[in-house]
């Protein structure tokens, strides 16, 4: 009788653990989030005139953010670049909201876009800190309308 009770308890525990791990992975996959890829931008060194390339995170000819790693709870500087029509971007309201995989939300940037930089139509320097590790979705808004989204991984340092 004791063996039977032990066997039932073990089977029930296995069933519960399997159900929990399946539902957790379903939530992660349901979001469908993947870190945004890298793009290369070219520049010219002022003194020597030499061309060089640097890597950014973003979508070609749409939006990019400097490729600094994100560490949980650590504030760092990031440059935002946006491409499009000058009249629709430069000096317009720029807001970036962040959402974690767990649903935590916050506003990271509320300002106005500046002019050209790195060949992009508009730019904005920012200082950002994301509080926890995992994937974070950064939604960039121009004059209140969603312009584009970047997903970045945040790690513990």
From TrEMBL:
State what protein this is by name.
Answer: DUF4871 domain-containing protein
UniProt key word Signal: yes
Signal sequence extent: 1-23
User: Keywords assigned by UniProt?
Assistant: Signal
